[in-house]
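Margin note from the TA: students keep mixing up input and output lines. Inputs are the sequences; the output is the structure of the whole complex. Example:
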Amino acid sequence: MSKKRGFDSFFERMSRRTAQKVSRRNFLATLGATLAGATVLPVLPVNRRAQAAEDTALQAAKEWAAAVQAQTKDERACNYWRYCSSDGYLCSCCGGGAATCPPGATPSPTSWIGSCLNPDDGKTYLIAYRDCCGKDTCARCVCLGTAGEMPVYRPQLNNDIVWCFGASSMVYHCSSAAIVGEV
Amino acid sequence: MSSATLADSAGAQFPTPGAVPDVLVRQHNTVVYRIDGAAQDYSRNCQGCHGHLGYSVEEIPVLKDRVGYFTRTPAGRAYLVRVPNVAQAHLSDERLARLLNWMLATYSPAQLPRDFVPYTAEEVNRLRREHPPSVVQLRKQVVEELLARGAIPDAAVLSFAGE
């Protein structure tokens, strides 16, 4: 179990370092150069912000899927494809499932919504990371994915905070990952 | 039913159940739809708290059958762009304007004024640069003006537990 934790924290650190190193300007300049050979394509400033945010999130999701060898068969493993931005204990190890709460815990009506790459079809899906709440912490199968996650000063896209707003209580039990749609 | 016969109002095709390669999706025969355009921007930026039906928990303002009221005055219209999570969304001016128009048409069309003019990118660009010192105070003033003009039946219509 400690080996697995070291494995996870290594890739988490790698993801963070990548996110910190690759600036938007650098990413766009590199992308433009790749597409047009030596010429860098001009990018309209009005689009830059939106494209950069999603490109960064998609890139992070792809990197995570490759780094952990994401799979679509075992919901109790940290490299199950939906957990690319899951931070906490897996509800599937706590008497529930990847998208269902264990008995005695209530699903939070609110969540942050990230996106993960499905390795089998190469498509990206929106994932709602709803915490299951109202029961003492499960403390099994801890996982940490940070693909597309933002720092806490943008809380609506952060997975460090406890997503139990509107549930029976703010006591955190485990984290779930429901598919919202294909993008 | 085959995917060829199912389509939403925008003409998009629904995938057949179990199309996502995933053990749980196959087990539960879950149907997963594509989410594109303004609906996708809403999913990424708003849905987690405001809900896919436009309402959620009592601390979070309800959009459904309510948010359209704000567009009945110029101050209210401006307020919707100045809400911090709107103004600071990771979206260009064009996409934010498109999202606001989609959100109003989807969740609160009946509350829009008859002469409602959709948001433009230029308008959003101008409004999101303005940072009122207190957005809470601003909201109070906007609601008072809506009430004074008879644009809302009573103040309770736009109240929420988080304020």
